[in-house]
Model the fold of this input.
Amino acid sequence: MEILTVILIIVAIVFLCIFFYFVPFSLWLSARVSGVRISLIQLFLMRIRKVPPSIIVNAMIEAHKAGINTISRDELEAHYLAGGHVVRVVHALVSAAKADINLSFKTATSIDLAGRDVFEAVQMSVNPKVIDTPVVSSVAKDGIQLLAKARVTVRANIKQLVGGAGEETVLARVGEGIVSSIGSSESHKSVLENPDSISKLVLTKGLDAGTAFEILSIDIADVDVGKNIGAQLQMDQANADKNIAQASAEKRRAMAIALEQEMKAKAQEAKARVIEAEAQVPLAMAEAFRNGNLGIMDYYKMKNIEADTNMRQSIAGPQQPKKE
Done:
């Protein structure tokens, strides 16, 4: 009898544990005390649908206490089953209502499902965020390089959080605007004297279009003077021109040497032909003697003419120094 009683007690305890797990009576009581109307059957069905009742009920209590009575239980469950953060969305709605920001539940859930932190976005709408840009290098028209660093104050744009570009796009556009502003300056001195001219020019370009932020201000934190890019480019150009001139002169020299070698070769060839022709003269004379076409007197006359020619050339030519 005593064993049966113990078994019945254990079974009763197990049954009560299972009952209070699937039917969270204390959670239902907290909701009723807070003014949120929800039944035990609905809490039981949440367990069946694998939706944590504590998350939904606590979110409904928070929204009700903040005066937001337009959120239904089905909407919260649907957002949880879609993979959203119910607690974060409710926090964002409460913060937006306190800050008098127009944020609907549909917009908040779409922002949350898009992967953005909707609560952080609402906080950024109330407290703007300051973003430091990396050092931006640009060159003024006088060839002097300037290194500028800016601080961008942005505020979240709730309407463009879904599909809007992020911080990287804002920083890239601000950097591009700084480069354009410095590059259009006549002298780097004017930029150093009035650095606010950069921020004014950049702000007029509407760099926050299509982004999830609204640019409130752009402040130039620091401007440093870098290298003299213009002079360096001129030096590089001069070195390039010098190398081109040297290469051209070397080419002309090589062509002249080649032409000289060619002329020498032609002269050697002509000389060889002359020597070859002179070598044929005695043979021709011998042939003429044999054939009777040349007599001895003709040969002497030719020799006399040759001796006379050599004498005339020696007289007309330069005087040779006498050897002692």
Notes: DSSP finds 13 helices and four strands in the chain.
